[in-house]
Amino acid sequence: MIRAENLVKRYGDFTAVDGISFEVPAGESFGLLGPNGAGKSTTMRMIGGVSQRTSGHLEIMGLDPEEQGPVVRAHLGVVPQQDNLDEELRVRDNLMVYGRYFGLSRAYLKPKIAELLDFAQLVDKADARVDDLSGGMKRRLTIARSLVNEPKILLLDEPTTGLDPQARHVLWDRLFRLKEQGVTLVLTTHHMDEAEQLCDRIIVVDAGRIMAEGSPAELIRRFSTREVVELRFGADRNAAVARRIEDLGERVEALPDRVLVYAHEGEAVLEAVAARGLHPVTSLVRRSSLEDVFLKLTGRSLVD
């Protein structure tokens, strides 16, 4: 469905995307995970045919998006990082105008819009102005709008940025339903839980390069331990304490606000810490996540 080989994008002397290669088969939910500035959105713009690559090869459904952009875009749905809805129009009219832009007939659009409003849980808001909607509702409307042309591939750039936890989970449910219908999802995110929930496979991207590729579970098994112990001793003590307990786990990381101990048995680590007369202000045992994978691969947090 999508194939990229040695994809490069430069802006003057700055290299935003530095020779990445990946493939996305039909029906997969594929994620690009990385911090702001990693090259995720630039990659999405090249896939969408709105930004020309500097070098490399890119195919979407066997077509080059630069040479056959209109044909490719006819089969794409795009959800940009920032909602770009017409705030003064009603919800229903936003979908109608967008559909007419694709040359779709009113006869087709009338039932399609009703279907999309139901999908986005916006039936009771159909005649409301967009600027009266909540952030979560606007995001669902943007996704509904991207589905007007029944795309084979849906590109989502940071789909839940700025949403509260409840709105994020509602949106996740809508995306799960699209995946069940066979739509290929390609999304960027810097939220580790989002990548774990939505993606069959991800690439971890930093500074325009791929650091690792695999399913979320595979990456966690490969680069982290089963559990992580988080200890907080205070910003002025964390580094010193980390040196005293570096033998208690497979790896120990001293961050400004906490110490992370990577081990397969977190409770045993807590007991060993207490046995050494060390008493953290707070402690927590949790399962490893993609955040830990990224920290291991790059030496810094996703939110740095």
TrEMBL record:
It comes from the Bacteria. Residues 2-232 form the ABC transporter domain. Belongs to the ABC transporter superfamily. Coiled coil: none annotated. Signal peptide: none annotated. The keyword Cytoplasm does not apply. Keywords: Antibiotic resistance, ATP-binding, Cell membrane, Membrane, Nucleotide-binding, Translocase, Transport. GO terms for biological process: response to antibiotic. GO terms for cellular component: plasma membrane. It is a peripheral membrane protein. GO terms for molecular function: ATP binding; ATP hydrolysis activity. The keyword Translocase applies. This is Lipooligosaccharide transport system ATP-binding protein. It is found in: Cell membrane.
